Amino acid sequence: MLRRSFIETLSSLPAVLHAAPGQRLLLGYDTYSIRSFEMKAMAHLEFAAAHKLDAVQISSLGDFESLDPAHLARVKQRARELNILLDGGTGCICPSARAWRPANGDPVEYLARAIRAASAAGARSLRCYLGDSADRLGPIPIEQHMENTIRVFKANRQLALDSGIKIAIENHSGDLQAWEVKTIIEEAGKDAVGACLDTGNPVWCAEDPAVTFETLGPLTVTTHVRDTAIFEHPRGCAAQWTALGDGCLDLTNLVTLHQRLCPSAPMHLEIITGGRPVSFPTLRRTFGRPSPRLAPPNSPASSRWSSAAPP
C-alpha cells in the first residue's frame, strides 16, 4: 500500500468511529500493512505518534531492530513516553500446518520466545495463527491442526500468565471459522488465550464478519480491520480486500459491535490491497465438501453483499 493511501485511510476513520455511538476505540495499525516502508519498531512508534494514533501491533519479531533485552526495554520506554499501546506478534505456531517452518525448531519454544520478547517490549498481547485455507483441504483434518495448536498453547499457558501476555490467535487466511477459533481458546484456557479478530479473513472460509464479531468479540484482545468487496461471479461470488469504505462491509455496524463486545481491544488497521479477486464456487453442490464443517448459512453467496457492484 502507498504511504499516501494509508494516511488517507487513517484520516477518514474518525468519521466512521463517531458514526457509531459508544465508547471511543483505540486506533492503531498492524505493522504488516506498511512493511514495504521497511520501518522497525522505533520508527513505527514515531510514525504512530505523528499521526495521533493510540496503538501499534508489531506483528513480527523481525520488526524489532534487535531482540536484545536492552533494546526491547528501550522500545517499551519509548512507547510509554509516547502513550502508545503495544501489541506483539509472530507467525504460524501449529507444527502440522502448511505454513509452519521446521527451521523455527520446537513450536512450543518458538512461541515461548515470542512471548518473552513481547513482554520485554511492554506489549499486552501476542498475535499468532494456526495456518491458512490450505489446511482445510490437505490430508490432515482441520480438527487435528486445532488439537496441535491447543497443545502448543497449553504448554505456554503458565509462561503467558506469568509474563502478562495474552496469546491472541487470529482467524487467518481462511484457516478457521470463528466458532473454531472460539473452541481453541476455550480448550486452551481463556485466562491465557484470546482472539486477534480479523475482519478481512472471514470471507475466505464463508463467514460474515459480523458473525465473526458476534462469536469472538467477547474473547478479542486485539484486531486486524479492513474492508472487503464481494460481488457476483459465474462460479458464485468473488471477493477482494479493499481500503476501508471501498468495500461492502457495514463499518458502522462493525464499530458498534467492537464497542459493545471488546471495547478495550485496539482497532488495528491491516490494509492489504492490490491483490486479484478470489472467486468461490458457492453455486456448486460440491462447495464445502473438503471442509464439511463450514457453516453454510454464513456463506457470502447468501449474504447481502453478493449483489454489490464489483470494485
Overview of this structure, please?
This protein is 34% helix and 18% strand. It has 311 residues and is of the alpha/beta class. It has one domain (21-225, 258-274): TIM Barrel (Alpha-Beta Barrel), CATH 3.20.20. The strands form two sheets. It has an eight-stranded parallel β-sheet, with helices on one face. It has a three-stranded antiparallel β-sheet with strand order 8-9-11, with no helix packed on it. Strand 1 (27-30), helix 2 and strand 2 form a beta-alpha-beta unit. Helix 8 (209-216) runs parallel beside helix 9 (251-261). The chain is globular and about 55 Å long.
TL;DR of this structure?
By secondary structure, the chain is an alpha/beta fold. Helix content is 34%, strand content 18%. It has nine helices and eleven strands.
Distance between termini? 17 Å
Mean pLDDT: 89
Structural class: alpha/beta
Main sheet specs: 8 strands, parallel
Radius of gyration over all CA atoms, rounded:
19 Å
Number of helices: 9
CATH top level label: Alpha Beta
Shape: globular
| Major β-sheet strand ordering | 7-6-5-4-3-2-1-10
CATH-derived architecture: Alpha-Beta Barrel
Portion in beta strands: 15-25%
Give the % helix: 25-40%
Task: Summarize the SSE layout with pairings.
Layout: H1 3-19, E1 27-30, H2 41-50, E2 55-57, H3 69-82, E3 85-92, H4 107-120, E4 125-129, H5 142-155, H6 157-163, E5 166-170, H7 178-188, E6 193-198, H8 209-216, E7 220-224, E8 227-233, E9 236-242, H9 251-261, E10 267-269, E11 278-280
Parallel strand pairs: 1-2, 1-10, 2-3, 3-4, 4-5, 5-6, 6-7
Antiparallel strand pairs: 8-9, 9-11
Helix pairs in contact: 2-3, 5-7, 7-8, 8-9
